[in-house]
Amino acid sequence: MASPESGSSYDVEFRSVVKHFADVRAVDDVSFALKRGSFHSFLGPSGCGKTTSLRLIAGFEQPDSGSVEIAGQSVVGVPAYRRPVNMVFQHYALFPHMDVASNVGYGLRQRKPRADAAEIDKQVAAALELVRLPHLGKRRAWELSGGQQQRVALARALINRPTVLLLDEPLAALDRKLRREMQIELQNLQREVGITFVLVTHDQEEALSMSDTIGIMKDGKVVQFGTPEELYDAPVNRYVADFVGESNFFSGSVASCDDTGAAITTPSGLTLQAPFSRLGGKLQPGAKATIAVRPEVIGLWQPGAVPAGLDISRPARLLNRIYLGDHSEFQIEADGLGPVLVRLPKHSTEGQALEPGDQVIMGWKRERALALSEA
Amino acid sequence: MTTAALKEKRRQGRWNALLLAPSGLWYLMLLILPLIVIMVYSVGERAPTGGYQAGFTFDNYLNIGARWTAFKNTLLLAPTGTFICLLAGYPLAYFLAVKANPRMRLFLLILVVVPFWTSFLIRTYAWMFILGGRGLPHLLELIGLEGFRFINTPFAVLVGIVYAYLPLMVFPIFVSLEKLDKRLLEASDDLGASPFATFRQITLPLSAPGMITGCMLVFILLMGEYLIPQMLGGGKVFFIGNALVDLFLQSLNWPFGSACAMALVFIMMVTVGLYLKATRATGSRDVSLM
Question: Do A311 and A354 fall within a single domain?
Answer without folding.
Answer: yes
